[in-house]
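Attaching the record inline, Q. Sequence:
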Amino acid sequence: MLGFVDTILLLSSLGFSLALLVPLTGALVRFRAHYNPKGLQLDPEGDVQPHTGPVISSFFGMLRRVYRIEGWPGLYKGLMPTMLSTLIITAFLVTFLDDKQLRPHGAYTAPRTGALGMLVYSLFTMLISLPQVILTDRAITTPHKLPYLNAIYSLRILLTPTERQRPWLLYLTPGLLAAQVLHIAYVVLGLRSIRQLLLPEIASGTLTRSEDISIVKLSIFFAIALLSTVILAPLEVAAIRLAIQRNHAVPEFNSISQEEDGDAEESMEYSGAEEDVIGLRTEREPYIGLVDCLKRIIDEEGWGALYRAWWLTMLGTLGGAFS
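Structure, as predicted:
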């Protein structure tokens, strides 16, 4: 168990991390969730109309737009689900795990095990956190102003009547689990296995001298980690698009069909800025799976939409690969 001083330091570290990361994560989620079709569209009468939504071309442009339209409250959308999940996980680790499994600054180190063991551990962690990820992404992208201390109101905004009645449907969100599993499998079975093969000293944590590292092997692994962005960035973009796509169902339709009634009665008008920060794709034509999501993003918005903020994926991949 941690002492009083250690607990204060841990909470201070968590608070600082949340204060810094929540706005950056929010801008990233909104940037990747923003729907910006590249071509002309047809209105209900069949007439051609150009897309009139906002055009955001960069991560930092999104950050500035959020602040301009919604101010500091907009930058900290998603704070409550992120903070609650962080506190619950931290409390669990402090209570049930040995202090040696916590780094000095309070971060948890995953258990060192083989590739299959790490895969099982990562998948289990992902399944536990999936509802929180969905709620956080939706809280960030919703045009509604959510109160910090009224969870019931927020859930009525973020979840459809169907999802509130059958919350397990969050796990059946079309394509979302596939995107998460493929991402984890590539990182764990792909990158970590290659690191074990090329750089066993780093992988096992037994490296004592930097001179023992082969520059050639290190360069090869570095290049593979960089190229992995080509695969991982589209999966991350698709995962966000699928997470914010709400599940609707009525007896005569399947789980991705839209509820023409009922859901509209639950919706509440946004009482804030005069314009939305981002444009969201209509729920009347939902993605029906991961492949369909990727294909429609390419067809409707172009390849560039799959690689929004790709450099953040690259930095994350490099950091995870050498950790």
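The CA atoms of residues 138 and 260 lie 20 Å apart. The longest helix spans residues 4-33.

More tomorrow.
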